[in-house]
Amino acid sequence: MSSIKNHVQLIGNVGQEPTVTNLESGKKVARLSLATNENYKNNKGDKQTDTNWHTVVAWGKVADIVEKYVVKGKEIGITGKLKTRTYTTEDGNQRYVTEVVANEILLLNGNTNK
Predict the structure, then answer these.
(1) Mind listing the domains of the chain with CATH numbers?
(2) What pTM was estimated for this model as a whole?
(3) Cα–Cα distance list, 86 to 29, 63, 91, 96 (Å)
């Protein structure tokens, strides 16, 4: 039961080319933006689309998959958890960032060549 306390599943399209960084510690991290669309009809019966953008962070082997196979526009599925972190800007303001930390990625829509 504890595995569903902080569990996220998303299917969407990658919004821009992922960035992959090799850290001094030897770890690899990939960051990407993922757009998910929700379709519905408004009061007049017109089809509407609501797009939400998610920042996804992947580490280690999942980052390797992102680096090798994920490109802008690719449809992917991810599972992971939400993580909120804080940082202070140069002018002293505190900012909060919520990201999806991916622990699994599924490559959808066929072509896996970069």
Answers:
(1) 2-38+47-107 (2.40.50.140)
(2) 0.84
(3) 18, 23, 15, 4
